[in-house]
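Subject: for your reference before the review

Hello V.,

The reviewers asked for a structural picture of the protein, and I figured it would be easier to keep everything in one thread rather than splitting it across files. Below is the amino acid sequence we used in the manuscript, unchanged from the supplementary table.
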Amino acid sequence: MIKSILLMGSSGFIGKNIYNTLKNNKLLKIFRYSTKKNMFIDKVEIEKFDILIFASGIHKTSNYQNRDIFLDSKKNIKILSKFLNNVEKVIFISSFKTSFNKNINILDGNTKYDFYKNDSLYGKSKILAEKIFLYLCKLKKKRFIILSPSHVIGPEENLNSINNSEIKKINQKKVFFYPDCLISLVDVRNLSNFVEKTIFSKNYDNKKIICSDKSLKYIDYIKIIKNKKFFLYFKINIYLLKLIYLTQTFLIKYKIIKTEIINNSQISYIDINPTIKTAEYKSQIPFDRTLNDIKKLL
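And here is what came back from the structure prediction:
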């Protein structure tokens, strides 16, 4: 039997990849909805859908270091609420940031969030959206699965998504001052494949699954991207980073530095140094291939 899928947020990096994966499955009929334009992209002749996939989100960029991100996130959740009465089940794409806890560095889907005071506006918008979603599902008695990816990377034209842009910057830089911490990454194609697998799962038991392919030291990540190119690197300890954070307003004022070097959320992340426990999530594309596919586009 063909399943009808309502895909919200299909124009973003994650949503576009989910659509490209699902559209080739003959057992699925995909209907895309643009939360940005608040309208269907595809012609719709039905009112009820088997599964809603919510992949709409506001991504952290320099343009979203202000409170407008909350308004946009609220708008997306309001649109989601409108469709919940017309679906059987929901796959909600969130972020592993909604499992951050100041006292726990090994994260899984059951880790209780305790990071709000230290979080960025982006992180706060993600946890608030998730909590409202949970409330709505409880109110409307909907079964769901939350998929929480770590830093999402993968091949794309121009490598413009937030984490791919960071790879481009690393590839171009010659000197690095790096913290001694881990970075967790997931290939967007692996995430999309797992979404497809989840669609046909019978276990919509209202749980969260963190999706991550690999956690590695940040300096090792840099070395893989640089691929034997010459560069200089210097490790900075957390105490020096905290000192820079406390004094950077003064340094910017007197033009010793041009822009903010580090924020409180980043320092707190380094302090936790989180890694991921992913018992239920399985990746298909090896991590080495992921980075090789990206490097071909640099």
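For the response letter, the relevant points are probably these. The chain has a mean pLDDT of 93. The first strand starts at residue 3 and ends at 8.

Happy to draft the paragraph if you're swamped.

O.
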